[in-house]
Amino acid sequence: MPEAPPAIELRGVTKRFETRDGGGHTATRDMSFTVRQGEFVSVVGPTGCGKSTSLSLISGLAAAGDGAVLVQGSPVTGIPDRLGYMFQQDAVLPWRTVLDNVAAGPRYQGASKQAARDQAKDWVARVGLAGFERYYPHQLSGGMRKRVALAQTLINEPSILLMDEPFGALDVQTREHMQDLLLDLWSGTSAAVVFVTHDLTEAIALADTVVVMTAAPATVKDVVPVELERPRRVEEIRLEEAFLEVYRRVWDSLREEVEITRSRGAGRVA
Ligand SMILES: Nc1ncnc2c1ncn2[C@@H]1O[C@H](COP(=O)(O)OP(=O)(O)OP(=O)(O)O)[C@@H](O)[C@H]1O
Protein backbone atom coordinates (compact mmCIF):
# COMPACT_ATOMS: atom_id res chain seq x y z
CA MET A 1 0.00 0.00 0.00
CA PRO A 2 1.35 3.48 -0.78
CA GLU A 3 2.35 5.42 2.31
CA ALA A 4 -0.19 8.04 3.45
CA PRO A 5 0.98 11.62 2.82
CA PRO A 6 1.87 13.76 5.83
CA ALA A 7 -1.08 15.56 7.39
CA ILE A 8 0.65 18.88 6.69
CA GLU A 9 3.56 19.70 4.43
CA LEU A 10 5.18 23.04 3.69
CA ARG A 11 7.66 22.84 0.84
CA GLY A 12 9.94 25.79 0.31
CA VAL A 13 7.25 28.34 1.10
CA THR A 14 7.98 32.02 0.68
CA LYS A 15 5.24 34.43 1.67
CA ARG A 16 5.43 38.11 0.93
CA PHE A 17 2.88 40.63 2.15
CA GLU A 18 2.31 43.94 0.49
CA THR A 19 2.76 46.82 2.90
CA ARG A 20 0.84 50.10 3.02
CA ASP A 21 3.77 52.11 1.75
CA GLY A 22 3.55 50.11 -1.47
CA GLY A 23 6.56 47.96 -0.58
CA GLY A 24 6.59 44.42 0.68
CA HIS A 25 7.48 42.36 3.70
CA THR A 26 8.76 38.80 3.42
CA ALA A 27 7.23 36.85 6.33
CA THR A 28 8.50 33.37 5.50
CA ARG A 29 11.41 32.35 3.31
CA ASP A 30 11.86 28.90 1.81
CA MET A 31 10.07 27.35 4.78
CA SER A 32 9.74 23.56 4.83
CA PHE A 33 8.43 21.21 7.49
CA THR A 34 6.03 18.31 7.77
CA VAL A 35 3.59 17.12 10.39
CA ARG A 36 2.44 13.51 10.44
CA GLN A 37 -1.15 12.59 11.25
CA GLY A 38 -1.27 12.25 15.02
CA GLU A 39 1.90 14.27 15.56
CA PHE A 40 2.12 17.25 17.90
CA VAL A 41 4.53 19.89 16.58
CA SER A 42 5.39 23.05 18.50
CA VAL A 43 6.76 26.03 16.61
CA VAL A 44 9.04 28.49 18.39
CA GLY A 45 10.91 31.47 17.06
CA PRO A 46 11.77 35.07 17.84
CA THR A 47 8.99 37.59 18.06
CA GLY A 48 7.52 38.66 14.72
CA CYS A 49 9.52 36.13 12.73
CA GLY A 50 6.56 34.63 10.85
CA LYS A 51 5.16 31.85 13.06
CA SER A 52 1.52 32.90 12.80
CA THR A 53 1.94 33.35 9.07
CA SER A 54 2.84 29.68 8.75
CA LEU A 55 -0.50 28.82 10.41
CA SER A 56 -2.34 31.20 8.07
CA LEU A 57 -0.78 29.38 5.13
CA ILE A 58 -1.85 25.94 6.41
CA SER A 59 -5.38 27.19 7.12
CA GLY A 60 -5.73 28.68 3.65
CA LEU A 61 -6.30 32.17 5.11
CA ALA A 62 -3.14 33.33 3.30
CA ALA A 63 -1.90 31.98 -0.01
CA ALA A 64 1.72 30.97 -0.48
CA GLY A 65 3.76 32.96 -2.98
CA ASP A 66 6.45 30.45 -3.91
CA GLY A 67 6.49 26.85 -2.78
CA ALA A 68 3.66 24.53 -1.85
CA VAL A 69 1.42 24.00 1.16
CA LEU A 70 -0.26 20.60 1.28
CA VAL A 71 -2.82 19.20 3.68
CA GLN A 72 -3.47 15.44 3.48
CA GLY A 73 -1.42 15.50 0.28
CA SER A 74 -3.52 18.11 -1.53
CA PRO A 75 -2.53 21.72 -2.18
CA VAL A 76 -4.37 24.14 0.10
CA THR A 77 -6.73 26.28 -1.93
CA GLY A 78 -9.25 27.29 0.77
CA ILE A 79 -9.92 26.32 4.37
CA PRO A 80 -9.19 22.56 4.57
CA ASP A 81 -11.87 20.17 5.83
CA ARG A 82 -11.83 19.30 9.52
CA LEU A 83 -9.51 22.13 10.46
CA GLY A 84 -9.60 23.57 13.97
CA TYR A 85 -7.98 26.90 14.84
CA MET A 86 -7.47 28.35 18.31
CA PHE A 87 -6.07 31.80 18.92
CA GLN A 88 -4.96 33.65 22.04
CA GLN A 89 -8.15 35.68 21.70
CA ASP A 90 -10.93 33.13 22.04
CA ALA A 91 -14.00 32.96 19.81
CA VAL A 92 -16.50 32.51 22.63
CA LEU A 93 -19.64 34.53 21.91
CA PRO A 94 -20.68 36.66 24.92
CA TRP A 95 -24.43 36.42 24.24
CA ARG A 96 -24.49 32.63 24.19
CA THR A 97 -24.41 30.26 27.14
CA VAL A 98 -21.50 27.86 27.58
CA LEU A 99 -23.64 25.05 26.19
CA ASP A 100 -24.75 26.98 23.13
CA ASN A 101 -21.22 28.20 22.44
CA VAL A 102 -19.99 24.61 22.42
CA ALA A 103 -23.00 23.40 20.41
CA ALA A 104 -22.38 25.98 17.66
CA GLY A 105 -20.08 23.72 15.60
CA PRO A 106 -22.42 20.71 15.35
CA ARG A 107 -25.36 23.09 14.70
CA TYR A 108 -23.40 24.63 11.85
CA GLN A 109 -22.71 21.13 10.52
CA GLY A 110 -26.46 20.49 10.43
CA ALA A 111 -27.10 18.62 13.70
CA SER A 112 -30.54 19.16 15.30
CA LYS A 113 -30.64 21.52 18.28
CA GLN A 114 -31.15 18.62 20.68
CA ALA A 115 -28.39 16.45 19.18
CA ALA A 116 -25.95 19.40 19.18
CA ARG A 117 -26.79 20.18 22.81
CA ASP A 118 -26.36 16.55 23.87
CA GLN A 119 -22.97 16.43 22.19
CA ALA A 120 -22.04 19.80 23.69
CA LYS A 121 -23.04 18.65 27.17
CA ASP A 122 -20.60 15.78 26.86
CA TRP A 123 -17.79 18.13 25.76
CA VAL A 124 -18.56 20.67 28.49
CA ALA A 125 -18.09 17.83 30.98
CA ARG A 126 -14.90 16.65 29.28
CA VAL A 127 -13.30 20.06 29.74
CA GLY A 128 -14.31 20.06 33.40
CA LEU A 129 -17.21 22.52 33.24
CA ALA A 130 -20.16 20.25 34.12
CA GLY A 131 -22.68 22.39 35.99
CA PHE A 132 -21.73 25.57 34.11
CA GLU A 133 -23.75 24.84 30.95
CA ARG A 134 -26.12 27.77 31.49
CA TYR A 135 -23.48 30.32 32.43
CA TYR A 136 -22.57 33.17 30.12
CA PRO A 137 -18.91 33.87 29.28
CA HIS A 138 -18.76 37.03 31.46
CA GLN A 139 -19.58 34.84 34.47
CA LEU A 140 -16.48 32.69 33.91
CA SER A 141 -12.79 33.09 34.74
CA GLY A 142 -10.21 33.37 31.94
CA GLY A 143 -9.25 29.73 32.38
CA MET A 144 -12.88 28.59 32.24
CA ARG A 145 -13.43 30.57 29.05
CA LYS A 146 -10.39 28.85 27.59
CA ARG A 147 -11.95 25.50 28.46
CA VAL A 148 -15.08 26.56 26.59
CA ALA A 149 -12.96 27.55 23.59
CA LEU A 150 -11.19 24.18 23.69
CA ALA A 151 -14.49 22.29 23.80
CA GLN A 152 -15.81 24.52 20.99
CA THR A 153 -12.84 23.53 18.84
CA LEU A 154 -12.54 19.84 19.72
CA ILE A 155 -16.25 19.04 19.40
CA ASN A 156 -15.72 19.36 15.64
CA GLU A 157 -13.17 16.53 15.79
CA PRO A 158 -10.51 18.37 13.78
CA SER A 159 -7.94 16.25 12.01
CA ILE A 160 -5.70 19.33 11.74
CA LEU A 161 -5.49 21.54 14.81
CA LEU A 162 -3.73 24.90 14.60
CA MET A 163 -3.07 26.69 17.89
CA ASP A 164 -1.61 30.19 18.01
CA GLU A 165 -0.46 30.94 21.55
CA PRO A 166 -3.84 29.76 22.84
CA PHE A 167 -2.85 29.90 26.53
CA GLY A 168 -0.65 32.99 26.26
CA ALA A 169 -2.87 35.24 28.38
CA LEU A 170 -3.34 32.81 31.27
CA ASP A 171 -1.50 32.77 34.60
CA VAL A 172 1.12 30.02 34.95
CA GLN A 173 -0.97 27.61 37.02
CA THR A 174 -4.05 27.87 34.84
CA ARG A 175 -1.84 27.51 31.81
CA GLU A 176 -0.38 24.25 33.10
CA HIS A 177 -3.87 22.90 33.77
CA MET A 178 -4.87 23.78 30.23
CA GLN A 179 -1.76 22.13 28.81
CA ASP A 180 -2.54 18.91 30.69
CA LEU A 181 -6.17 19.08 29.60
CA LEU A 182 -5.16 19.59 25.99
CA LEU A 183 -2.80 16.60 26.13
CA ASP A 184 -5.51 14.41 27.71
CA LEU A 185 -8.09 15.34 25.09
CA TRP A 186 -5.70 15.22 22.16
CA SER A 187 -4.39 11.76 23.16
CA GLY A 188 -7.79 10.30 22.32
CA THR A 189 -7.63 11.65 18.75
CA SER A 190 -5.35 11.33 15.74
CA ALA A 191 -5.23 15.08 15.11
CA ALA A 192 -2.06 16.64 13.72
CA VAL A 193 -1.32 19.71 15.84
CA VAL A 194 0.78 22.78 15.10
CA PHE A 195 1.16 24.80 18.29
CA VAL A 196 2.83 28.21 18.14
CA THR A 197 4.22 29.52 21.41
CA HIS A 198 6.86 31.80 22.90
CA ASP A 199 7.13 29.56 25.93
CA LEU A 200 9.83 26.90 25.46
CA THR A 201 8.67 24.86 28.44
CA GLU A 202 5.18 24.72 26.98
CA ALA A 203 6.53 23.92 23.52
CA ILE A 204 8.60 20.97 24.73
CA ALA A 205 6.16 19.63 27.33
CA LEU A 206 3.42 19.27 24.74
CA ALA A 207 5.21 18.25 21.58
CA ASP A 208 6.62 15.25 19.75
CA THR A 209 8.74 17.66 17.71
CA VAL A 210 9.83 21.28 18.16
CA VAL A 211 10.42 23.33 15.02
CA VAL A 212 12.74 26.29 15.62
CA MET A 213 12.36 29.26 13.27
CA THR A 214 15.01 31.81 12.38
CA ALA A 215 14.74 35.56 12.83
CA ALA A 216 12.50 37.18 10.17
CA PRO A 217 11.85 36.20 7.49
CA ALA A 218 11.16 32.82 9.08
CA THR A 219 12.71 29.69 7.75
CA VAL A 220 13.21 26.44 9.63
CA LYS A 221 16.45 26.48 11.59
CA ASP A 222 16.16 23.25 13.51
CA VAL A 223 13.79 20.33 14.04
CA VAL A 224 14.20 18.85 17.52
CA PRO A 225 12.57 15.52 18.46
CA VAL A 226 11.10 15.33 21.97
CA GLU A 227 11.42 11.72 22.98
CA LEU A 228 9.69 11.92 26.33
CA GLU A 229 7.15 9.30 27.34
CA ARG A 230 3.43 9.93 27.24
CA PRO A 231 1.15 10.41 29.07
CA ARG A 232 2.87 13.49 30.46
CA ARG A 233 2.09 15.82 33.33
CA VAL A 234 3.50 19.22 32.49
CA GLU A 235 4.38 20.26 36.04
CA GLU A 236 6.36 17.04 36.54
CA ILE A 237 7.97 16.51 33.18
CA ARG A 238 9.64 19.91 33.10
CA LEU A 239 11.88 18.91 36.01
CA GLU A 240 13.24 15.77 34.35
CA GLU A 241 16.82 15.68 33.09
CA ALA A 242 15.72 14.45 29.63
CA PHE A 243 13.42 17.48 29.40
CA LEU A 244 16.21 19.86 30.37
CA GLU A 245 18.45 18.36 27.70
CA VAL A 246 15.85 19.09 25.02
CA TYR A 247 15.38 22.55 26.51
CA ARG A 248 19.10 23.30 26.24
CA ARG A 249 19.19 22.04 22.66
CA VAL A 250 16.20 24.17 21.61
CA TRP A 251 17.48 27.26 23.42
CA ASP A 252 20.97 26.86 21.92
CA SER A 253 19.37 26.93 18.52
CA LEU A 254 16.98 29.77 19.27
CA ARG A 255 19.32 32.04 21.21
CA GLU A 256 21.17 33.33 18.17
CA GLU A 257 17.92 34.16 16.36
CA VAL A 258 16.58 35.99 19.40
CA GLU A 259 19.80 38.01 19.55
CA ILE A 260 19.51 38.92 15.87
CA THR A 261 15.92 40.03 16.46
CA ARG A 262 16.93 42.05 19.54
CA SER A 263 19.75 43.74 17.69
CA ARG A 264 17.23 44.85 15.07
CA GLY A 265 15.30 46.55 17.86
CA ALA A 266 12.28 44.28 18.40
CA GLY A 267 11.04 44.73 21.95
CA ARG A 268 9.55 41.41 22.97
CA VAL A 269 11.64 38.28 22.72
CA ALA A 270 10.89 34.57 22.60
N1 LIG B 1 -1.68 40.33 6.50
C1 LIG B 1 -0.47 40.90 6.64
N2 LIG B 1 -0.12 41.99 5.91
C2 LIG B 1 1.11 42.54 6.03
N3 LIG B 1 2.07 42.09 6.86
C3 LIG B 1 1.77 41.01 7.61
C4 LIG B 1 0.49 40.37 7.54
N4 LIG B 1 0.51 39.31 8.42
C5 LIG B 1 1.73 39.33 8.99
N5 LIG B 1 2.49 40.33 8.50
C6 LIG B 1 3.87 40.64 8.89
O1 LIG B 1 4.64 39.46 8.78
C7 LIG B 1 5.58 39.39 9.85
C8 LIG B 1 5.44 38.08 10.57
O2 LIG B 1 4.22 38.11 11.30
P1 LIG B 1 3.70 36.87 12.16
O3 LIG B 1 2.47 37.31 12.87
O4 LIG B 1 3.62 35.69 11.29
O5 LIG B 1 4.91 36.67 13.17
P2 LIG B 1 4.95 35.86 14.54
O6 LIG B 1 6.27 35.18 14.56
O7 LIG B 1 3.76 34.99 14.69
O8 LIG B 1 4.90 37.05 15.58
P3 LIG B 1 4.75 37.05 17.18
O9 LIG B 1 5.91 36.32 17.70
O10 LIG B 1 4.82 38.48 17.55
O11 LIG B 1 3.44 36.43 17.52
C9 LIG B 1 5.33 40.60 10.74
O12 LIG B 1 6.28 41.58 10.44
C10 LIG B 1 3.95 41.05 10.36
O13 LIG B 1 3.80 42.45 10.50
TrEMBL record:
Gene encoding this chain?
ssuB_2
Q: Which organism is it from?
A: Planotetraspora phitsanulokensis
Which SUPFAM superfamilies does the protein's record reference? Answer: P-loop containing nucleoside triphosphate hydrolases
Sorted alphabetically, which PROSITE patterns does this protein's record hold?
A: ABC_TRANSPORTER_1, ABC_TRANSPORTER_2
Q: Which PANTHER family match?
A: ALIPHATIC SULFONATES IMPORT ATP-BINDING PROTEIN SSUB, TAURINE IMPORT ATP-BINDING PROTEIN-RELATED
Q: Which GO terms describe its molecular function?
A: ATP binding; ATP hydrolysis activity; glycosyltransferase activity
InterPro entries associated with the record:
AAA+_ATPase, ABC_transporter-like_ATP-bd, ABC_transporter-like_CS, ABC_transporter_ATP-bind, P-loop_NTPase
Q: What is this protein called?
A: Mannosyltransferase
- Extent of the signal sequence: none
Which keywords are on file for this protein?
Answer: ATP-binding, Glycosyltransferase, Nucleotide-binding, Transferase, Transport
Which spans are transmembrane here?
A: none
Residue ranges of every copy of the ABC transporter domain listed in the record: 8-240
Among Pfam families, the record links this protein to: ABC_tran
